[in-house]
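Hi,

I'm pasting everything inline rather than attaching a file, because the server keeps stripping attachments. The sequence lines come first, and each chain or strand is labelled.
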Amino acid sequence: MRRFCIAALWLALVLGAPAWAVQPDERLADPALEARARTLSAELRCMVCQNQSIDDSDAELAHDLRVLVRERLAAGDTNEQVLDFVVARYGEFVLLKPRFSARNALLWGTPVVLLVVGGVVALVAARSRRKTSTRLSDEEKAALDRILAESGSERPGSV
Amino acid sequence: MIVETGHFALVLALALALVQSLVPLVGARTNDARLMATGGPVAVAGFALTGIAFAALVMAYVQSDFSVANVWENSHSAKPMLYKVTGTWGNHEGSMLLWVLILTFFGALVAVFGGNLPATLRANVLSVQGWIGAAFLLFVLTTSNPFIRLEPAPFEGRDLNPILQDVGLAIHPPLLYLGYVGFSVCFSFAVAALIDGRIDAAWARWVRPWTLAAWMFLTGGIAMGSYWAYYELGWGGFWFWDPVENASFMPWLAGTALLHSAIVMEKRSALKIWTILLAILTFSLSLLGTFLVRSGVLTSVHAFATDPTRGVFILAILVLFIGGSLALFALRAGSLTAGGLFHPISREGALVLNNLFLTTAAATVLVGTLYPLLVEAVTGDKISVGAPFFNLTFGPLMLPLLLLIPFGPLLAWKRGDVYAVAQRLMAAFGGALLAVLATLLLADGASVFAALGVGIGVWMILGALTDLVQKSALGTVPLAVAARRLAGLPRSVHGTALAHLGMGVTVLGIVATLAFEAEHITIMKPGESTAIAGRTLRFEGVSPVQGPNFTETRASFVLLGAGGGKLGEVTSAKRVYTARQMPTTEAGILTLGFSQLYVSLGDPTQDGGIVVRIWWKPLVTLIWLGGLVMMVAAAVSLTDRRLRVGAPARRAKAASSPAGAKA
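And the predicted assembly:
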């Protein structure tokens, strides 16, 4: 629900200069380049918005960034170069997908580590439990023999 | 006067919550039946008083009593009645009051339906429920009081945020809170078991239906929220990985895991300790979600620092309850006995795998949501974690889980045979393969990934049906016999199949929308047409419309099929709410079968045209229909015989194993 409030808030803020996410006149003529621009736009944060990519945002800044991305692409940059350029200008805050770096190790590592550790723990727990369950202690064996002997002696009588 | 009555009732509710926190607990410790018995009536009375407080606030909204600050800030006399009522919880104070109301409601439910619980367990559960209630009532009364008056009273209110003026507000928050807060019962049961130091079969039998009910509401709440965002925000997305969405999604993931581990515990009395931990974690995530949303910490760490009272208060509640319950768990978990044994390849093993993936997914979402806060607090750097991160991590985590779902219900308890199960799933696999091939052949430009995605959805749906076919022996016995068997299957079996089918339907919707969506952005003038996904959209013209508290510019379009036949009309609008002078977009949506045409208006151009964004979203409604199916599935499962008939009876232990073998 809060996101609506926030969305409303910035909608109100940008009311003075309304624009629309990806304007017709922003688009590049080359469909392949335009497709790359859209992909890149989805990975770049609209810095004045609440968790919105520049591809979705109506804000003026998002418009400027969209145009910038397209300019760099038209100038022949690779996707990586475009991102580097934008990060150099605005900092890593602009990336919606943080880079693989030592600082972000915990972020990227958590899913893998948890899955592996959890899997190993579950497997070990299952194995150790099976081991303890397959071996009977001497007392249990004695008890079992006794029960078997009793039921064995009962059977002929009960039939 | 009504407002003061409500305020007073809320203070009384706090007093009763304090009584509920202590007296039954002391009774349980000293084995005093009279003290224990106070829990029930006090819980019911607490609910009634909170209900009075809530009703008083609703009345203030209905009567547009602007002498109440909360009403003045969030209502307007010209607002339609529905939004006057729903506006009650369309703001911080009111929504916290709804939160507390639902919490006391669940407490009262435990009191009313818990008559056949062991007395000490019931007393402990009600006390724990009382602690939560007392903490949040204190929070509402001290930091978020909705009953504060203004002097002099303003003449007109400032109106509700226009984006919230929607039926969505009537459904989404109540459902979401019923889910969120419903997990408090599981939490209370877990903590009560830890206090008691023992868990018996009655415990598991009790926890499962509560989990199921909470999960049902949370599923509905999230699905409804997603659809609301889809049509209201005007850019056609259905999930944004927004921190606030994540806040509700984390308890859902953990709750889904809990739902499954509780089955193992109930049927096989295994995974006891884990289930207790999961129950604690699930509600902890609900509390964390409440903190994240309500403290404002997500918007900015600085917003939190400027007005910290609310945030610090909820943070204190969070630390107290999560820390306290985990400490109690650490102290007591050792004394709980581990339960039944099973082979890794078994129904239990499959459910453990389910839990592994779901909890890892929940942890991934948690870390992703909190990481920017963590980095900023530690290094001062600002980073963003958004949709691309979650798609890249959450997606691969879900993939194996979704693929394995059809195996789970077909595996036998204790020791299963994967090959036999795989054989029985051959038909489903064949169907999925056909769907992949058909997608590749029939859909223009379908990528291999898209086709495989469709295949996964179909695989899940057919796999769920296979379960029912196998268990009713359809095809091997005469049809009438099979039908009778199908009807005679336990409701929980139907529920399982239906829920997994619903999940498959949702997956199918997501894949189809992401892979085959067509988007077109253009400038249109009245009378002009444009092509979208093999159809033609004609712009008829615009007309001004005067609403009760807004004015709008409404554009009408007609959708024509490939042959020129009319498929339907759709109107899309830009609205301005007069009180706040705030614009909103009202997306035009035309539903054709399971697919939708989505039209959103941009700015007018100087030469009389208007920017129009058009999407063709194939099978998009399946995303939410799947959620609806899952809700129905949970409801069906809740009517299971063993939950209706003497479910929590103490002799449950003896009856548990044959039931387990059958299901």
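Chain B touches chain A through 70 residues (CB under 8 Å).

If the labels don't parse on your end, tell me and I'll reformat.
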